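Q: What residues go here?
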């Protein structure tokens, strides 16, 4: 996916060597503008407009630092691993954003220095793409590389995002993995991601919810479960546990902000969601479990909630059957 020209991740970067070579700037003038907040430095020797930099998220700033490293490189490099993900418009949740990852085109051994990790590895022709004036790993390879850097949960977030968007198929991931990457260090995490990846999962929150159920040995929920009233589709649930009489909704703020209908306020959206929930309960007889970012931050407590709810529904069903 091509980022729009005004995307913050494509913020113009001025390199010290170029600014001074063009005249009108010196180390002293650049330092003065940094102190005044007119400029800021994503990394040493790279400058951006200070006001725009301060308005960016950590993820956006990371993408700008990645571009600065690429522009400053003295040898041919490819943005790789998690550092390639932003330029395919993918999420970088859960990864260490203090380090930029590049792979050398010359195949020499990699090394770590000043916030940069240089990698080497066998490249296939389809592994490298050019986008936004950068050489970056393809979405398939970047996803696989990301799984060896972070935890399985973070890797799953990336894989599900691209699968849902149709960037590639699960079979493409497996084929590229088996071509030459299955012997890489830490690839056991990759195996887990490949087993759990599901194109039906639509968001970071849903990917994390899915992983939570796996990691806590809870029943596996069905993503995007459809509820009908006769032949009419009433709702598509984030997840469902039909055998347990429960459905799960991930409650990120996006549901009440991004998907507002014309003329609707967030309060209206909350009320609409409540009515939707009542309709689903009426049609299915199930109970709803809502999960938030805060819940995922305390998985032990959340697990206890889920197990209590499963037990409660089971007990209620048994009493109805007995009566």
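A:
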């Amino acid at each position: 996916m091509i980022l729009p020209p005004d995307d913050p991740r494509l913020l113009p970067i001025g390199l010290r060597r170029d600014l001074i070579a063009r005249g009108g700037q010196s180390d002293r003038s650049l330092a003065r503008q940094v102190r005044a907040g007119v400029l800021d430095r994503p990394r040493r020797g790279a400058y951006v407009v200070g006001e725009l930099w301060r308005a960016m998220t950590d993820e956006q700033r990371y993408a700008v630092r990645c571009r600065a490293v690429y522009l400053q490189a003295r040898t041919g490099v490819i943005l790789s691993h998690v550092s390639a993900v932003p330029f395919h418009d993918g999420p970088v949740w859960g990864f260490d954003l203090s380090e930029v990852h590049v792979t050398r085109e010359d195949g020499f051994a990699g090394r770590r220095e000043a916030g940069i990790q240089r990698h080497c590895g066998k490249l296939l022709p389809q592994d490298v793409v050019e986008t936004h004036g950068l050489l970056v790993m393809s979405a398939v390879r970047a996803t696989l590389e990301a799984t060896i850097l972070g935890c399985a949960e973070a890797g799953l977030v990336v894989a599900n995002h691209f699968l849902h968007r149709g960037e590639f198929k699960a079979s493409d991931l497996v084929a590229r993995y088996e071509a030459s990457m299955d012997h890489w260090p830490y690839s056991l995490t990759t195996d887990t991601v490949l087993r759990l990846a599901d194109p039906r999962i639509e968001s970071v929150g849903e990917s994390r919810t899915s992983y939570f159920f796996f990691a806590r040995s809870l029943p596996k929920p069905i993503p995007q479960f459809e509820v009908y009233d006769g032949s009419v589709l009433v709702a598509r649930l984030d997840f469902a546990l039909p055998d347990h009489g429960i459905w799960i909704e991930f409650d990120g703020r996006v549901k009440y902000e991004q998907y507002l209908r014309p003329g609707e306020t967030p309060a209206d959206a909350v009320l609409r969601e409540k009515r939707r929930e009542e309709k689903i309960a009426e049609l299915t007889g199930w109970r709803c479990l809502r999960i938030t970012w805060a819940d995922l931050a305390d998985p032990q407590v959340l697990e206890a909630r889920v197990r209590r709810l499963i037990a409660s529904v089971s007990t209620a069903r048994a009493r109805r059957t007995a009566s």
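A: Context that may help when evaluating the design: The chain has 13 helices and 13 strands. The chain has three domains: 1-58, 73-199, 208-322.
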